[in-house]
Sequence to fold (228 residues):
Amino acid sequence: KNQVEQSPQSLIILEGKNCTLQCNYTVSPFSNLRWYKQDTGRGPVSLTIMTFSENTKSNGRYTATLDADTKQSSLHITASQLSDSASYICVVSANNAGNMLTFGGGTRLMVKP
Amino acid sequence: NAGVTQTPKFQVLKTGQSMTLQCAQDMNHEYMSWYRQDPGMGLRLIHYSVGAGITDQGEVPNGYNVSRSTTEDFPLRLLSAAPSQTSVYFCASSYEAGGPTDTQYFGPGTRLTVL
Fold:
């Protein structure tokens, strides 16, 4: 069964600090991996999309990495801001009919002043 | 360009009632989908559509119906609401289904409570 596991489940950091969120997956055959940001009460918003051949992709202060061999990804947030407080969701797309997406449970990040 | 819109934003139903959650997109996307999000769990796919007139079941389709008569609209129908359907429902659209360069756009969600 395709699965996406994220850690930690929740994280509290001080404003200005960096943090790294982890994602492990067992989706096969792999097509691409996405990171989404979901603010409280809102729908998820795409941050990055990486294919098998990409091992890093940045979007402003967000940098995602992908190790397709170990089936791991990380999302690094640099110089955190209060507005980074949200849930971050790792999503993996399988390269099959319908390109089904498997969602992780998310990491809830709180940035405190 | 409104993106993906959903109505209503909140809804309370009694067990056994039926209702329709509305979803519309103005980006001319072929692929639309419905998810439910429950506490501590990842989003789970209910139904999806790869184009007008074509729908298919996702991971958790029981108790829900969909139709896709136009490219823009993808309503989700609850036939006989049950407390287990209490959840937050998200509609999403994309140019294609989960392709390598395909960005999926989500609506703001409908928070449904079934008593």
Observations:
- Chain A is about 0% helix and 60% strand.
- The longest strand of chain A covers residues 30-38.
